[in-house]
Design a protein that fits this description.
There is one protein chain. The chain is mostly helical. Helix content is about 45%, strand content about 5%. Strands 1-2 form a two-stranded parallel ribbon. Helix 1 packs across helix 7, helix 2 runs parallel beside helix 7 and helix 5 packs across helix 6. It starts with a helix and ends in a 25-residue tail after the last helix.
Length: about 190
Amino acid sequence: MSRTFGANVRNTAAGRQPEVWARPEAIDRLRSSLRKLSDEEHSMCQVAAERGIFCRGFRRWPDHEFHERWTAIIGESTHLTRAQMEELANIWQLGEQIRFRVCLACDAQTISHGACRGWDEFSNEALGRFCDEVLGRNVVVTERKDQTAQTDRDPAAVRMRRLDMNPAPRSSLSKNPERNGFEARRSAP
């Protein structure tokens, strides 16, 4: 896929009536699509950075912020280039995926916050944009399935939405690793 992946898909959702998805559903659908892009050598952080999609992975941070966020994890170096440091961060992310038995770095970072907070890093609005960019779907993400998309024109709906919102997004990770997209590789006895 080319770097224009998101731009090409994004145009297909423009003008459509938005679908309403609960946060866990949006994350599950994004996970299903994103896991096809990463593999055992390339974390989603690396893929997103290289393709300029989703959260933009390692490239979403300028050099000083990348260094600040990753020094505690990969160590400090005065001679490594940014690309070399990103490769070390990629290897660390892959190790975390194995450790937590999950398919994406986003899932591992949700379980144990590191340089980012995984799925918890993203607002419902950001998840909606990612659904547009990655899935080509015009989506309004809500905390619960029974919560409907409401407009700012209804003052009662705005008040209810403010009261109903949880400032800390909930994780959609399951206690069952297979549900998170991780299939354990078993060697034959």
